[in-house]
Each structure stands twice: as structure tokens, then as C-alpha cells.
């Protein structure tokens, strides 16, 4: 259950942060209105709370692992919402970022508790 919880929280956090940033982008760059920015601020605040529910108690580890999820999630958002067409290198970079995130967040599960 913990692995599923970690993954679900990272996905929800990605939607909140990327969606919030996108809403602010729309307000500022596309003149969509101040209420887009307000919704973006709310979504970005929600991201902070969602990340705090991760079972790992180490802020730095959670945020570092989330970085990989953010990279892949941002490209996915661009594909679905903005019609972005990623290159092969975008996909490779996302894969590397997600692999790094998995190593950071899941490696402690597979190592001895006495190791650093």
C-alpha cells in the first residue's frame, strides 16, 4: 500500500503544481484573466500540502524525487493540454528523470536501515 500511496501522491502533486503553473502562465502570457492566476495560486498551495502527505519524513528526498515526476509530468501536460510534440530526447530525458526519482524514493526500501 505504501508504494501505491507514494505514486498516487506524486501524481496528484504533479497535477496541482503543473496545473497551477499553467494557470498562472495563461493569466500572464495569454491574458486569460486574473482569476486564472488566482486558481493557479490555490493549486500551487495545494501542491505544498499534498507533498507533505508523503510517507517519507525527509523533505529534501521527497522534493528531489518529485523533481523527476515534475519533468515527465510537465511534458505529459504539454502533450495533452497544449498539443506539444516531444522529441526522442524529451522522452529519454523524462525516462532518466523518472529513474532518478525512483532510485531516490524507493532505494531506502531495498537497503539496510543502518546504511546512510
TrEMBL record:
Pfam families: UPF0060. One of its GO terms (cellular component) is plasma membrane. Keywords: Cell membrane, Membrane, Transmembrane, Transmembrane helix. The keyword Cell membrane applies. InterPro entries: EmrE-like, UPF0060. It comes from the Bacteria. Its main location: membrane. It is a multi-pass membrane protein. Belongs to the UPF0060 family. This is Uncharacterized protein.
